[in-house]
Design brief:
The structure is a single chain. The chain is an alpha+beta fold. It is built from 3 helices and 4 strands; from the N terminus they run αβαβαββ. Strands 1-2-4-3 form a 4-stranded mixed beta sheet, with helices on both faces. It comes from Oceanobacillus sojae. Pfam families: CRS1_YhbY.
């Protein structure tokens, strides 16, 4: 679990990152979970954008992705989810 201080730090780190995945009307699927998991391993911190045609609630989508990739939801802001997972091979972010 991330502390509030760590989440605040990760939010500031994610400020300049552009979303690299989009969740559309089909919602979250296994293939997407796998790809997001691989991206998290390489980058540790990513953003996922939820499109307007997505029928599921953004918090449910965030939870599905988080559970599927064993990552932490840093924040759900607007239609963007910020996810963090400590990398085993590419560790670059040092949490406070």
């Amino acid at each position: 679990m991330l502390t509030n201080k760590q989440k605040q730090f990760l939010r500031s780190e994610s400020h300049h990152i552009k979303p690299i995945f989009q969740v559309g009307k089909d919602g979250v699927n296994e293939n997407m979970i796998t790809q997001i998991g691989e991206a998290l391993e390489k980058r540790e911190l990513i953003k996922v954008s939820i499109l307007q045609n997505c029928s599921e609630d953004k918090n449910v989508v965030a939870e599905q992705i988080s559970n599927g990739t064993e990552s932490e939801v840093v924040q759900v802001i607007g239609s963007t989810i910020i996810l963090y997972k400590e990398s085993t091979d590419h560790k670059e972010i040092k949490l406070p």
